[in-house]
Design a protein that fits this description.
Two copies of one chain form a homodimer. In chain A, the strands form three sheets. In chain A, strands 1-5-6-12-11-10-7-9-8 form a nine-stranded mixed beta sheet. In chain A, strands 14-13-15-16-17 form a five-stranded mixed beta sheet, with helices on one face. In chain A, strands 2-4 form a two-stranded antiparallel sheet. Chain A has 438 residues and is of the alpha+beta class. Chain A contains 13 helices and 17 strands. Chains A and B meet through helix 1, strand 1, helix 2, strand 3 and strand 4 of A and helix 1, strand 1, helix 2, strand 3 and strand 4 of B. Strand 3 (65-69) of chain A pairs antiparallel with strand 3 of chain B, so a sheet runs across the interface.
């Protein structure tokens, strides 16, 4: 016997009972169907990458799980260092770089897979979790239309899954970088990194860090904070608001044109669904243009549930080529576990079984099996009760698992089949070669 | 830039191009559908278990990958030891033990998930691989009918996937243990472990080990080898063959009755599909009754592609309860990669896209998008070409990815939609609100 302790859940590694897993599985099927409806092709990558590949792409403040062979002799050496991937973007970039000659570009892939982070578990933060990603990578510039299409696809997914109201905040790194440069700040990336913390430390905290870490003067800091305060759904107003701050520069103008285009494309969506928010930066170092982050509209303190953006150099940096990309990632586990916790996932069945063929008194195994085989052959999910038990126990089994129908197979030469609908309680004669569940 | 070396495949961690992954994904969908058609419910377990749980269940000669947090301070301690699971049976047993009160018994689950072993990669042996398992666990004795149903379901899967002829070898641990005990051998489990190596070391090797390790006499060894030589498809003949060896005992008789029942149930299947083989033992310590192993019929040297059996104590040993189980596992990666390697997987498409809406000369983004939206809304997998390019390039893109149809959206007020079938070359007028791909 193992200590009871060892059987307990491990914090940050979620597991579901079958009735909940069936809902999660249905979610994944729905996400897959939507991704495929836009022509994204499925790939999976291995779960591990060389440690060097994972660390190179920044995000090194995330804890990474490295692998160690348990029976390996101490100091045997020779084995390269591998670690579990912490997202699906970096592995996808490596995959594209490694398979360059076998892929057709623009390469559009989706990937629904687990990832791991050794973070301290807390609400919405897991150590093992499933991400659902779409990305487009090309060997030439990627049209800006994709910048609007990616968050629109994710919006469609959120609507289909009925997760409740969400808001997608959109910004553009070129606007931020161009604006800061226009202010005469060289360390634009450092400013982005600090402004990205505004959610957590507030404007005052950002101002303090900009003073302490970067020695920016008060006038510059005021402008940085004014920019970060701009948000709105209307492309013209938002871009006008930025221009009104009186900063200029080529990169800034390019970023504003892009942000304007993307917001215009999304103006037809319901109010509140998409918002330009000049405080959004995304922590990851590799983004270069449009960035997204999606939150539950009514839960501002809950972490981001989807995120992504445009990265011009992530893939290409592995090969020294021009391979721009754009992508967005759905934090499936974060969203799903939140809804489970809030009691918004209402499972009804513990099994996919549509009909349980029971073992009636006096019936033979062959009679029961024949009915089950006939139903199953017609595509009906059919479970066969494998031993003669009291009918009450067999009915309780069906009822406890949420099986909607119980089949009473014909017994003996004169027997007739009957089926009972456990929801309505109705029982009637039925023919296994034609009957269909409601 | 990363060293080229770091982009290369990692031995034992397979990855597929999209066109191959699409076939693998279709396989998994098919397996899921068959498992669900028998009423198995889906679960997934976390990828890690406490090291103690993994090691307890034997199979310790398999290398296990433990996790190590990369940024953890040396000697920080406190963190329990977790490792990646090496199969799906032990995690399922732990899951059942942990969720005992939330499950309805008999608990029938399927699980399609990755597992990891730090083995030296070789043909058919991977470090990361996907298994497809079904198991039944109950709080009371499990009827013998399941012992016949489990390999029959796997046979149905192998037929559906068209993997080529397979042979399922069946034995019963009680027959082996009862027979050895009847010979007066106390170390029955040690004999099983040694006989299991017959495939690799031959009868002479087995005889030598039985002499050297267990000091069995020649007459006993002769009987052990005679038993291991018995095989056949007919229940009566096989059981008669064992009885003719003149060994007796209660456990042996019970095992022979079980083996007879299972083989009789399977006699209706095509010749060669199921074979009783008294040399089959399965390496894992937890099996107690029926055991299975499936191989490619024409590839005797290729490793086992599916395996399983009955385990009376695996789950219960975690809780000190009676929780017998029976299950079988399909080595998806092993089977699939073999067929890929042999050129038996013939992918036709690199994308799920059914129709590419091209960007014709003079067309606007809105016109192209409108056609794509109309088609997609009707459930057709539709990709939209996101920039105006030469038609030849757009057609080449569709053709390279294996997209079967290209849509030419209506341009201008008088424009009309047309669609081209890239297989037949036919092009004709079409209405996006009614057209359906062939």
């Amino acid at each position: 016997m193992i200590e009871k302790q060892k059987l307990k859940p491990i914090s940050g590694f979620p597991e579901w009972t079958p009735e909940i897993r069936m809902v999660e599985q249905a979610w994944i099927d729905r996400i897959r169907a939507i991704f495929e409806s836009y022509g994204f092709a499925p790939i999976e990558t291995r779960s591990v990458e060389p440690v060097e590949v994972l660390l190179k792409q920044g995000d090194t403040d995330k804890e990474i799980y490295a692998l160690r062979r348990l029976l390996e002799e101490e100091g045997a050496g020779g084995e390269p260092d591998y670690a579990l991937h912490y997202d699906l973007t970096v592995p996808m970039a490596r995959y594209v770089a490694a398979n360059l000659n076998d892929l057709t570009f623009p390469f559009k892939r989706y990937q629904i897979q687990r990832a791991w982070r050794g973070e301290r578990p807390q609400e919405g933060r897991f150590r093992e979790f499933t991400q659902c990603d779409i990305d487009v990578v090309d060997q030439r510039d990627i049209p800006l239309h994709f910048d609007a299409e990616m968050p629109a696809i994710v919006y469609e997914v959120m609507q289909a899954l009925e997760v409740g109201p969400t808001v997608t905040r959109i910004n553009n790194r070129k606007v931020l970088e161009g604006f800061y440069r226009g202010l005469g700040v060289d360390a634009a990336h450092e400013v982005i990194r600090i402004v990205d913390k505004q959610d957590k430390i507030g404007s005052a905290g950002v101002a303090k860090m900009l003073t302490d870490d970067l020695a920016l003067d008060d006038a510059t800091i005021a402008k940085v904070l004014e920019l970060a305060a701009i948000r709105g759904a209307k492309a013209d107003e938002v871009v006008g608001g930025v221009r009104a701050l009186g900063v200029s520069g080529e990169l800034l103008e390019q970023g504003l044109d892009e942000l304007h285009f993307v917001m215009r494309e999304l103006e037809a969506y319901p109010e509140g669904a998409f918002l330009a928010d000049l405080s959004v930066a995304r922590g990851l170092a590799y983004y270069t243009g449009t960035v997204y982050e999606v939150k539950f509209a009514d839960e501002p303190d809950f972490p981001t549930i989807c995120g992504g953006g445009r990265y011009e150099n992530l893939v290409g940096s592995l090969l020294n080529k021009h391979l721009p990309g754009i992508g967005i990632s759905i934090g499936l586990t974060r969203i799903f576990s939140k809804l489970v916790k809030d009691g918004k996932i209402a499972p009804t069945r513990k099994t996919p079984t549509e009909v349980l063929v029971c073992w009636p008194p006096g019936g033979t195994y062959e009679e029961i099996k024949a009915a089950a085989v006939a139903l199953r052959r017609r595509g009906i999910k059919t479970e066969q009760f494998h031993e003669p038990r009291k009918m009450k126990q067999q009915m309780a089994y069906a009822s406890n698992k949420g099986v909607p129908h119980v089949w009473f197979p014909a017994v003996g030469a004169d027997g007739a089949h009957e089926v009972k609908n456990l929801t309505t309680g109705e029982q009637q004669a039925a023919d296994p070669s034609v009957w269909t569940p409601d």
